[in-house]
Amino acid sequence: MVDFLDRGELLLVLQGFNPWWVGKTFEVPEFRRLAFWVSKRYLTDPSLRRAVLLSGPRRVGKTTVLLQLAKSMSERGECPPKSILYLSLDHPMLKLVSLPEILRLYHENVYPEGKPVFLFLDEVQYSDDWELHLKQIIDHKPEYRILATGSATVVHQRDLIDSGVGRWIRVAMPTLSFYEFVRICGEDNTEIPDDIRPVDLFNMCNSELLQLAARFRPLMPLFQRYLLVGGFPETAKMIDVGLCQRLLREDVVERVLKRDMTALFGIRNVNDLEKLFIYLCIHSGNIIEVKTCAQALSISPNTVSNYLAALEKTGLIFRLPPVPTHGKKILKARYKIYLADAALRNAVLLRGEEILSNSNEMGLIVETAILRHLYAYYYQDNPEIGYWRDPKRKREVDIVVRSPSYVIPVEVKYRENAFLDPTAGIWLFCQQEKATWAYWVTKQEHDFGVTAGKGLSTSILKIPAHIFAYLLGQAERLLAGVDKPGRG
Fold first, then answer.
1. pTM for this predicted structure
2. Are 237 and 185 within 8 A, CB to CB?
3. Please, are residues 318 and 340 in contact by the beta-carbon 8 Å criterion?
4. Residue 284 to residue 277: CA distance in whole angstroms
5. Which residues contact 398 (CB under 8 A, 6 or more apart)?
6. Which residues on neighbouring strands pair with residue 146, listed in sequence order?
7. CA dist., res. 156 & res. 317, Å (int)
8. Helix (H) or strand (E) holding 181
9. Rounded to an integer, what is the distance from CA 175 to the centroid of its chain?
């Protein structure tokens, strides 16, 4: 502890972060994201001797999950309130003190050492030598149950690989799914079956699918708003789109570029990083050639490559590699780049409600949203997610999800006429790869239906984007073992 820092002042900070110690009430959002239930299950499983890392982009609600857990566990009597210690490690005063010193002060003044403790560490990457300190706690203090958050996935990709093998379990927390967006806005449609998954639709006849589409019709306006303002809890209910976008620029984009990435990756030339991010916003959904990008921005290709890798680790972008067919290797991978949430692009480029009538813009935005849902839904399988392109016939598939047990192509055609013909890339891909299922994501509900082409063993489901996104989000909760949607 630094000499000028008074222990009493530090204790007051700890008390301020933990109002439940003295029975003070505090407000947290009622809606509980999937990460709440998954984190709680891991924390309370006595057979799991690992710390839990909750990671995702900035402003997706990681801190809220910690506080919801503290409130729920203390008020329900699941543990003594003083056995829950929450620390926001980006606080200026806590940055001056090591984690062992904080824990020593906590045990000397608040809660006896040796008894079970729930340790909630927010923004863990801002604590010096955090990985070493937590490794020692996990290995030598089994009474601690640890849940930590980090805005950058670098926390587990770099530090935990080196020092935390077998000691951590990661819970990914992306932006809101459309299902969660509907729930957080308080406009859930009780007419929609709460146990249906996208794969179940392949067993329905077309008349059943059209009846189901009618039940989803009231959600269409909300889906357009979701595409416009994005999946960030703080802005989900805001009416003023301009204010939403300003907050996203300030809280998500600028703080990540100017604070997180300089602190975590040692990036010094923020101007070049900002130029690259704007370039990616303009060209989102396209193949990004590093040399072409470097020339356009007047920076070195090596710098572009390093910055792209860093942006991916902070959760701001997805990089999709090309997916080979017939086991053929791709000698030179050319990545497609997408922003993690289409609203980030809207905010940076100041695209407002006018984009809702722009078919080109909407196609890209919907494709980005569907990609986010596929990443989240198939996360536990850890599949390869990429795109497919046949350069000879100039055909492609937007998204391909592949694991040892399945391959699922997804093509997004968000337009008035989404006709599917045998020359489409998804048709050619299914012929080559013998896929069982494929998704053709459309705009109009009258497109809803299953088709199987001549000479094609694949069942292709034509499905409106708002239905597909909602069901993927709902199925994500079902897959994780969370109860029916009525559970907040």
1. 0.90
2. yes
3. yes
4. 10
5. 367, 387, 410, 411, 412
6. 119
7. 17
8. helix 178-184
9. 5
Helical pair 301-313 and 270-282, crossing angle rounded to 10 deg: 80
* In the block, residue with structure tokens 């003295």: 22
End-to-end CA distance of the chain: 42
Q: In what order do the strands lie in the sheet with 117-122?
A: 84-88, 117-122, 144-150, 51-55, 168-172
CA distance 149 to 160: 13
Task: Give SS3 for 307.
Answer: helix
Write down the pLDDT at residue 189.
67
Q: In whole angstroms, what is the distance from residue 63 CA to residue 90 CA?
A: 12
Structure tokens given for 153: 């996935």
Is the Cβ–Cβ distance between 337 and 280 less than 8 Å? yes
- Residues 419-455: pLDDT tens digits? 888 889 999 999 888 899 999 999 999 899 998 877 7
Residues lower than pLDDT 50 in the chain: 154, 156-159, 161-164, 485-488
On the 0-12 / 13-18 / 19+ scale of CB atoms within 10 A, 463 is buried
Q: Is residue 125 within 8 Å of residue 150, measured between CB atoms?
A: yes
**Where does residue 381 rank: exposed (0-12), middle (13-18), buried (19+ CB within 10 A)?**
middle
- Beta bridge mates, 397: 388
Cα–Cα dist 60/36, whole Å: 12
Classify each residue of 385-397 as buried b or exposed e, where b means 16 or more C-beta atoms within 10 Å of its C-beta: bbbbbeeeeebbb
pLDDT at 2: 54
What is the distance between the alpha carbons of residues 94 and 115, in angstroms, rounded to a whole number?
Answer: 24
- pLDDT (0 to 100) of residue 161: 45
* Short-list 180, 175, 132, 169, CA closest to 49: 169
The Cα–Cα gap between 76 and 203 comes to 43
- Residue-level pLDDT at 163: 47
Single out the residue of 345, 399, 346 nearest to residue 370, CA to CA.
399
Number of alpha carbons in the 13 Å side-chain half-sphere of residue 221 = 5
Question: What pLDDT is stored for residue 162 in this prediction?
Answer: 46
Cα 215 to Cα 229: distance, rounded to the nearest angstrom: 24
As a whole number of Å, the CA-based R_g of the chain is 24
Cα separations in angstroms, 258 against 27, 94, 203: 30, 21, 50
The 10s digit of each residue's pLDDT in 395-423 is: 999 999 999 889 999 999 998 888 888 88
